[in-house]
Amino acid sequence: xxANSQFSMAVHVLAMLARSKDENIKSDCLASSVNTNAVVVRxxxxxxxxxxxxxxxxxxxxxxxxxxxxxxINLSEIYKAVNCGEVFALHAKSPSKDCPIGKNIEAVLGCIxxxxxxxxxxKLSRYTLQNVFEMVEQGKS
Amino acid sequence: xxANSQFSMAVHVLAMLARSKDENIKSDCLASSVNTNAVVVRxxxxxxxxxxxxxxxxxxxxxxxxxxxxxxINLSEIYKAVNCGEVFALHAKSPSKDCPIGKNIEAVLGCIxxxxxxxxxxKLSRYTLQNVFEMVEQGKS
DNA sequence: TATATTTGTATCAAGGGTGGTTACAAACAG
DNA sequence: CTGTTTGTAACCACCCTTGATACAAATATA
Lengths: 141, 141
Known about the structure:
The structure is a homodimer.
Chain A: H1 6-19, H2 27-34, H3 38-50, E1 54-57, E2 63-66, H4 75-81, H5 100-124, H6 129-138
Antiparallel strand pairs in A: 1-2
Helix pairs in contact in A: 1-3, 1-6, 2-3, 4-5
The first copy, chain A, binds a DNA duplex through helix 3.
């Protein structure tokens, strides 16, 4: 399987829930729209639940709905809630400590990595789920 | 999936070359510092060569050196030169076009993705290889 | 020219992450 | 009590990244 698309799936699912207000939506319905398996959606909903973004109910007439208003959820929260890939990974195996570069490169890269992550969070936090939902609605043809 | 550490490796290798000025450095020597296989390094150098960041020579006394001064190379160029992972991937399988959300969500996500990428490039472009080299040197203990 | 060195590249194996699928217990409405 | 739906475990298939071996091509040096 290719790169990690959980963030995309999460935004998609949450936009669906935003559209349906307080109505419970079944994982099967979400899976149809995302074009995947219901279990994959439920796995994702589990993560979103832990982040207090959705609430789910078992049993007949069960399903999921948003835990908060769409304008109180921003994309940065969603990004943090799911297992997203990193912008770039640090060395798989630690560099040689016998080399003046190898000895310190990890610390420098780690510092840059944190700065990039901060930038991503900052940019994502500018969008609320409501914004995204409206963008999707406006694109409706 | 094994996380992609090519950007980290690339910065590491280029910092090594920056340290050695115009001297040819062998892939074997670079591999020792990075703590990996020489072929892995040569694969990476091939990409950096295509991006006009390094020059390599075959044969005895061969090796690689920077194609430009370290202060004329910024991290954004390096990021673009290597096969880095994406911040997040779009849907693996296209969402359902029968759903008002599914129909347009990809376009919206694509738009956000491009904005995030732009932000990353902007932040990375603030660092030159010379900056990184100096940060590593200063951290020397 | 002959030799040793080094890169460039093809190929294969190992390891691990991601998503797809099935199965089943638990919760819940009616 | 019955049917529905979630939560979760287990397993599989696919594919990406890295590690490793092998060998041709290029090149400096004797």
